[in-house]
Design a protein that fits this description.
single chain; 509 residues; FAD/NAD(P)-binding domain; Helicase, Ruva Protein, domain 3; 3 domains; ten-stranded mixed beta sheet; six-stranded mixed beta sheet; 22 strands; globular
């Protein structure tokens, strides 16, 4: 097997292309550092595309006294709504109150803290509500009449990763898709790293002054590869906790979400999803390893169904489930016996043997990825020379260079410019790409000009863009991560698209 060697020395080599790796790459490249990022599979292919799709402080974390985490997450919620107004937007949450669970005074106190702990908050504050006076039927049991409402936000998690990578690339980062770290060693004051393209088998030598390990569920494995002398003696351990979700046809009207208290003191969300569906999640189940990936179990399905059926006027069953997915949270192991109580905060482990540093990222949550990236660069400050300081909260992500309040106006302009195209199609395209939708559509004014229609709102013009610009390599990259069109397609349509895609883009052996 041949191995190529690059003559360039990177300031930073990042291992792992989930949200944390993408965030570090963007921040570092924007500060003028020479950055490379390697991801062994598809970007956002594991945890970062399998979240509950929320930007939130984590209301329930207050019960575990995670005040710093909640405050930071709420502040980050404001920043993300501003830099990604096309893929993230405010969402009102309703918490029905039922007797026998958390008392009213406790909920009121928690919501008051939630309204104030994050500093300047632009979203509406919490309030007590009567469910029978909501603008649309609640979908809940008739005897559940009161509750509380508060604000958080929704985000397309996989697109958040891609847009951070595109931004990193715009700032000069080299992004290596489907490339895994094979070996790494410190030599002559630098990292000498061997990486392998998992498609072609080609190997390459990359040299870097520092390495950042954002491998998610594989963080401990990479940590040991980077620091073999410390194998078995790492100062931090990862606890893998699976969070599973189910998607069913829309259960209630309105644009609000529900946060439901369960009798085990956990909470379960019901969130409007992709117009026609409701997303239900999540679970907290220990995962032994990642050898076979993450798959929802029948017990988890039953748990989620039981949790929502305690509230719904019309109970649902497993026959109603149209999609299932599971992700594994790589949490910092704080030795808690309760998976729900394990901290969602992040821990950064710095190893600087021979004055050649690496930082391994344990834990974290999608809401705080940007601040995590800043913390990584603060850790590495003694070894890096940056052109500027913190900047990433002020520059919009690609496609989102408009004010949050102007989102409706931006969408209206798109619909007027492309009046010959379906308005619903344009709305969904804008929700994935923002202003980049104009780049994708170009001068098209009729459906025929968009190329083949694969169903579910997916057309050839967008597919071509995703292949050329967003590292899409397999059908699922497009159906379930770059877009969620697979959810709107029949099994036959998905199969036809896969056949077309594989014929057009044959996989190299």
């Amino acid at each position: 097997m041949s191995t190529a060697t690059t003559s360039e020395t990177y300031d930073l080599l990042i291992i792992g292309g989930g949200i944390n790796g993408a965030g570090v790459a963007r921040d570092a490249a924007g500060r003028g550092l020479k950055v490379a990022l390697c991801e062994q599979n598809d970007f956002a292919g594991a945890t970062s595309s399998a979240s509950t799709k929320l930007i939130h402080g984590g209301l329930r974390y207050l019960e575990y006294y995670e005040f710093r985490l909640v405050a930071e997450a709420l502040a980050e919620r404001e920043h993300l709504l501003n830099i990604a107004p096309h893929i993230a937007w405010p969402l009102r949450f309703v918490m029905p109150h039922v007797k026998g669970l958390r008392p009213r005074w406790m909920i009121r106190l928690g919501l008051w803290m939630y309204d104030h702990i994050g500093g300047r908050i632009t979203l509406p504050h919490s309030a007590g509500i009567k469910l029978d006076q909501m603008n649309a039927p609640s979908g809940l049991r008739m005897d559940i009449t009161r509750g509380f409402a508060y604000s958080d936000a929704w985000v397309d998690d996989a697109r958040l990763v891609i847009l951070n990578l595109l931004s990193a690339q715009e700032h000069g980062a080299d992004i290596f898709a489907r490339t895994r770290l094979v070996d790494a060693r410190r030599s002559n004051g630098l990292w000498q790293c061997e990486v392998e393209n998992t498609v072609t088998g080609t190997r390459e030598q990359l040299t870097a002054r520092a390495v950042v390990n954002t491998a998610g569920p594989w963080v401990a494995k990479i940590d040991q590869l980077l620091n073999p002398a410390r194998q078995g003696k790492v100062h931090a351990a990862v606890k893998l906790v699976r969070g599973s979700h189910i998607v069913v046809p829309r259960l209630f009207a309105g644009e609000h979400a529900y946060i439901l208290q369960n009798d085990d003191k956990r909470i379960v969300f019901m969130i409007p999803y992709e117009d026609k569906f409701t997303l239900i999640g999540t679970t907290d189940v220990p995962q032994e390893n990642m050898d076979n990936g993450a798959t929802i179990s029948t017990d988890e399905e039953a748990y989620l169904l039981r949790a929502v059926n305690q509230y719904l006027a019309k109970p649902i069953s497993d026959a109603d489930i149209v999609w299932r997915y599971a992700g594994v949270r790589p949490l910092f192991d704080d030795e808690s016996d309760n998976p729900s109580a394990v901290t969602r905060d992040y821990t950064l482990m710095l190893h600087d043997a021979d004055n050649v540093p690496c930082v391994s990222v344990y834990g974290g949550k999608i809401t705080t990825y940007r601040r995590l990236a800043e913390s990584v660069l603060e850790k590495l400050a003694p070894w890096t020379r940056t052109r500027r300081g913190s900047w990433s909260k002020d520059e919009a992500l690609p496609g989102g260079k408009f004010k949050r309040a102007d989102r409706a106006q931006e969408l209206d302009y798109l619909k007027k410019k492309y009046a010959g195209l379906d308005a619903h199609f344009l709305t969904r395209l804008f929700g994935r790409h923002g202003r980049i939708a104009h780049v994708i559509l170009k001068e098209a004014q009729t459906p025929d000009e968009l190329g083949r229609d694969f169903g579910g709102g997916l057309v050839q013009r967008e597919v071509d863009y995703l292949i050329t610009n967003e590292w899409a390599y397999q059908p699922d990259d497009i159906l379930w991560r770059r877009t969620k069109c697979g959810l709107h397609m029949s099994q036959e349509q998905r199969a036809e698209f896969a056949a077309w895609f594989n014929e057009r883009c044959p996989r190299r052996s």
